[in-house]
Design goal:
Shape: globular
Order of helices and strands: HEEEHEHEEEEEHEHHEHEHEHEHHHH
Number of helices: 13
CATH class: Alpha Beta
Strand order of the largest sheet: 3-4-5-10-11-12-13-14
CATH superfamily: Aldolase class I
Largest sheet: 8 strands, parallel, barrel
Distance between the termini: 25 Å
Length: 370
């Protein structure tokens, strides 16, 4: 029997100028099927359209420049060819009345010289090496390198890369963009004192460390209206060696600033499934609800029940699901009909580059026929 808590998850929702058919969001999921040329393709089109019952799809992290690359076979949006290759995907989803936002990504120090042109060092806010065992690179597993700190005069060029990526996303038919400010990638590296020890206008105070994200948002807002732009943050995250003592003050400040733009949403990794820096109490959705008036998306470790409860309590408007969408293309139908979920996919196939473990998960109706 469907309860009212879960049914709230399945109600429509007005997001800016879009009407979402439900509040189940497909989280951005790196799946590494774009090949060495980082080109969207028919395999990716099939994968996304299989999951078109989501209220909104947020694309996998998509690199805004060659310099931004830090993961094998992820798609890009830095060439016109890549832009054209995304079009069949957005068109196929729009035929199913499913909106899709493109997630804009620069890996920063979470990269390696073998990803970079002329084997240059990856860049970051400061020359601080991430503490981690290894990174998967085009030349196999490699130790992390100490990145090169970006020069002050280089930063406007990176902001421009974000703007150009947003422009291409618009031409490719995306309904909006999500600025990836989470998980220890370049924007997060600027935000957090753990990775930002600059002495110029982009370092020092929280206000200064926020400036890079501010400039990116304002550049992207010259392309898309504010209600088609979201920002992703991970205030509790330890991934890519993050976690700063002033995290609470920092992320409340960022949310207050974001509130002034009328953005589509803030997408928060509030769950602790990817680890927690344990520098104090974890931040929760309510912390952000108190300072951000727009749409909040919760993410990480939610079940159908906990997602419905969170929405019912008013702490989030939408909930993003990651891993459940990998192995359940018909996740919304399973939630709607109380059908059981497929077992969670084996980590080995998440990034295998192959169709197997990508587009071959059965829907409930197919599996029950078998």
């Amino acid at each position: 029997m469907e309860n009212t808590t879960t049914s709230m998850l399945l109600t429509s929702y007005k997001l800016g100028n879009l009407t979402l058919k439900n509040r189940v969001i497909m989280a951005p999921l790196t799946r590494s099927r774009a090949g060495e040329e980082r080109m969207p393709n028919d395999l990716m089109k099939e994968y996304y359209t299989q999951r078109a019952s989501a209220g909104l799809i947020i694309s996998e992290a998509t690199v805004i420049s060659r310099q931004g690359c830090g993961w094998l076979n992820t798609p890009g949006i830095y060439s016109d060819q890549q832009m054209k290759a995304w079009k069949p995907i957005t068109e196929a989803l729009h035929e199913q009345e499913t909106p899709i936002f493109l997630q804009l990504w620069h890996a920063g120090r979470a990269s390696h010289s073998s990803f970079q042109e002329n084997n240059q060092l990856p860049v970051s806010a400061s020359a601080i090496k991430p503490n981690g065992e290894y990174i998967h690179t085009p030349i196999g597993k490699q130790p992390y390198e100490t990145p090169r700190a970006l020069e002050t005069e280089e930063i406007p060029g990176i902001v421009e890369d974000y703007r150009l990526a947003a422009e291409r996303a618009k031409k490719a038919g995306f309904d909006g963009v999500e600025i990836h400010g989470a998980n220890g990638y370049l924007i997060d590296q600027f935000l957090q004192s753990k990775s930002n020890q600059r002495t110029d206008k982009y370092g020092g105070s929280i206000e200064n460390r926020y400036l890079f994200l501010q400039e990116i948002i304002e550049a992207v807002l010259t392309v898309f209206p504010a209600n088609q732009v979201g920002v992703r943050l991970s205030p509790n995250g330890v991934y890519n060696d993050m976690g700063s003592p002033e995290y609470r003050e920092l992320f409340i400040y960022v949310a207050k600033q974001l509130n002034s733009y009328g953005l589509a949403y803030i997408h928060l990794l509030d769950g602790l499934g990817f680890g927690f820096h344990e520098l104090g109490e974890p931040m929760n959705l309510k912390d952000f609800r108190d300072v951000f008036e727009g749409t909040l998306i919760g993410n990480c470790g939610y079940t159908k029940e906990s997602a419905g409860e969170t929405i019912k309590e008013g702490n989030a408007d939408l909930i993003a699901f990651g891993r459940p969408f990998i192995s359940n293309p018909d996740l919304v139908e399973r939630f709607t009909n109380n059908w059981p979920l497929n077992p969670e996919a084996d980590l080995k196939i998440w990034y295998s580059f192959e169709p197997e473990g990508y587009i071959d998960f059965p829907t409930y109706q197919n599996s029950s026929k078998g």
